[in-house]
């Protein structure tokens, strides 16, 4: 307090208006001005600055909390997505394997069906050939039989005379009569 009083006393010794002058000691005047400005700022700005810093701190903490919550949510979603991806990959592998096995089964079924169809066609062809062969053999037999009958008739007609003809007729009538009597 003594220093403050001495300052005022010291001011009293300064010359008054008549001897107004400039203080050319820049360091002393700047230091005094800066001290006054800093003191006023600290005194009046302390509360405002504290409120600004507290608000800033709260916003930063809130942002950090929100970021952490978003990060946790994102990690959960990522884990769910990984699990879904694994499930889908497993299903895709199953479909792929089932598809390959289904293709193989269809291929085997097609080969078996084709083989059965070829066997049936071969059997049908063999049966057709057999029937055609039998038909040809029967036609040949019929022609041979017809030719034999025609040849026999021709031989009989040329060899038969009327007396032989009557004798054959009487013999047949006798055979028929004997058959009739037996009954």
TrEMBL record:
UniProt cross-references to InterPro entries, sorted A to Z: ATP_synth_b/b'su_bac/chlpt
Organism domain of life: Eukaryota
One GO CC term, this protein: chloroplast thylakoid membrane
MF annotations from Gene Ontology: proton-transporting ATP synthase activity, rotational mechanism
TM region(s), chain numbering: 31-49
Pfam families membership: ATP-synt_B
Subcellular compartments: Membrane; Plastid, Chloroplast thylakoid membrane
Coiled-coil portions: 71-98
Membrane topology qualifier: Single-pass membrane protein
Record's keyword terms, sorted: ATP synthesis, CF(0), Chloroplast, Coiled coil, Hydrogen ion transport, Ion transport, Membrane, Plastid, Thylakoid, Transmembrane, Transmembrane helix, Transport
Similarity section: Belongs to the ATPase B chain family.
Subunit structure, as described in the record: F-type ATPases have 2 components, F(1) - the catalytic core - and F(0) - the membrane proton channel. F(1) has five subunits: alpha(3), beta(3), gamma(1), delta(1), epsilon(1). F(0) has four main subunits: a(1), b(1), b'(1) and c(10-14). The alpha and beta chains form an alternating ring which encloses part of the gamma chain. F(1) is attached to F(0) by a central stalk formed by the gamma and epsilon chains, while a peripheral stalk is formed by the delta, b and b' chains.
PANTHER family in alphabetical order: ATP SYNTHASE SUBUNIT B, CHLOROPLASTIC
Note: In plastids the F-type ATPase is also known as CF(1)CF(0).
UniProt function note: Component of the F(0) channel, it forms part of the peripheral stalk, linking F(1) to F(0). F(1)F(0) ATP synthase produces ATP from ADP in the presence of a proton or sodium gradient. F-type ATPases consist of two structural domains, F(1) containing the extramembraneous catalytic core and F(0) containing the membrane proton channel, linked together by a central stalk and a peripheral stalk. During catalysis, ATP synthesis in the catalytic domain of F(1) is coupled via a rotary mechanism of the central stalk subunits to proton translocation.
Protein name in UniProt: ATP synthase subunit b, chloroplastic
Biological source species: Oxyrhachis gracillima
Lineage of producing organism: Eukaryota, Viridiplantae, Streptophyta, Embryophyta, Tracheophyta
Gene name tied to this protein: atpF
């Amino acid at each position: 307090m003594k220093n403050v009083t001495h300052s005022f006393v010291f001011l009293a010794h300064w010359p008054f208006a008549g001897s107004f002058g400039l203080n050319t000691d820049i360091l002393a005047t700047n230091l005094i001005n800066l001290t006054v400005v800093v003191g006023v700022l600290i005194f009046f700005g302390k509360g405002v600055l504290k409120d600004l810093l507290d608000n800033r701190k709260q916003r930063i903490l809130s942002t950090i909390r929100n970021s952490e919550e978003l990060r946790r949510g994102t990690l959960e979603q990522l884990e769910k997505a990984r699990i879904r991806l694994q499930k889908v990959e497993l299903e895709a592998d199953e479909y792929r394997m089932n598809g390959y096995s289904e293709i193989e089964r269809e291929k085997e079924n097609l080969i078996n069906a084709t083989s059965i169809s070829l066997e049936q066609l071969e059997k049908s062809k063999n049966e057709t050939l057999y029937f055609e062969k039998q038909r040809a053999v029967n036609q040949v037999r019929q022609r041979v039989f017809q030719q034999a009958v025609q040849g026999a008739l021709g031989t009989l007609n040329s060899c038969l005379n009327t007396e032989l003809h009557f004798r054959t007729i009487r013999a047949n009538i006798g055979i028929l009569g004997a058959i009739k009597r037996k009954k």
